[in-house]
Amino acid sequence: MTSNFGFLGCLQYLPERHRLNSSEFNETSGEEELPIPAFVNRVPAKVLPPGVFDKLSYATLVKIGERLKDAKGILVNSFPEVEPYAAEHFSRGRDYPHVYPVGPVLNLTGRTNPGLASAQYENMMKWLDEQPDSSVLFLCFGSMGVFSEPQIKQIAHALELVGFRFIWAIRTNIAGDGDPHEPLPEGFVERTKGRGIVCSWAPQVDILAHKATGGFVSHCGWNSIQESLWYGVPIATWPMYAEQQLNAFNMVKELGLAVEIRLDYVADGDRVTLEIVSADEIATAVRSLMDGDNLVRKKVQEISAVARKAVGDGGSSVVATGDFISDVLGDHF
């Protein structure tokens, strides 16, 4: 699995829930709190993957959960130190396949994109080089993260309220070929000139790796979360689609490794949060995120060191990978 222990816990739970209630979740289920065994806290239904609210997708997720029980083993892209309770839950066995925590599995070589010319990339990195350490806020919402124009204006207003330096990747459509400046408030670019960059695509790994980056407003895709943890950059959660709501809940409520903007925001097909998140709400979260004394920042920096140990000699990921290879070669399945 490319996902984490938390999402695996959700897939383990769904068939059990289905035996008691065979219908998909609906809008009235949103405030229901679920006793998912892999989580310390009860999990609000509203942070489950949006697919559980669709009949066909729900049936598919239940079927995947059922089939996983028949697997000989399951690899997850996580490590026990970042999700200790869930890792312990799956280590107990309990008539479930052996779970191998082989993460963090990351591509840290940086990414190229034809939408960002080499000169633009160089200018962006040069600008970062000129900023103080941990002073830049990075906002990026994945390849499918598209906001309405009113929401973009609220984010822009929040950036003006807080006054932090920033890099903001704006997608105006799924294709990513729109003008990122078009939906911005009039005069925003001029008012933030010198302290902010707006673009349609950003080299996420390179930005997170840079010492000037101090915070990440993210859609909470698991790869993005792991990249942020690896580089010790704290996240403010703004999930959009797939299992990102559950990831956000996991990071904020279970692990204390992120600051909450929203946990249940959805922009996934027909399911779209209509409420506009206000500039004041965004600004409050961002100020907390960028606070150098924030406990979340300290915990994320500790996890950064642990993540590197996990993939080093004798680390948990290396040991789990070795166990998996031994089990395959020894036909222990």
How does this structure look, described?
There is one protein chain. The chain is α/β, with parallel strands linked by helices and 333 residues long. The chain has two domains: 5-103 and 311-329, Rossmann fold (3-Layer(aba) Sandwich); 118-306, 3-Layer(aba) Sandwich (Rossmann fold). Helices cover 41% and strands 13% of the residues. The protein is built from twelve helices and twelve strands. The strands form four sheets. A six-stranded parallel sheet has the order 7-6-5-8-9-10, sandwiched between helices. It is globular, with a radius of gyration of 20 Å.
How many separate domains? 2
Strand order of the largest sheet: 7-6-5-8-9-10
CATH fold call of the largest domain:
Rossmann fold
**Helical content, roughly?**
40-55%
Considering the protein shown, what is the CATH homologous superfamily of the largest domain? Glycogen Phosphorylase B
What is the 3D shape? globular
Strand content: 5-15%
Oligomer: single chain
Give the second-level CATH assignment, the architecture of the largest domain.
Answer: 3-Layer(aba) Sandwich
CATH class placement of the largest domain: Alpha Beta
Radius of gyration: 20 Å
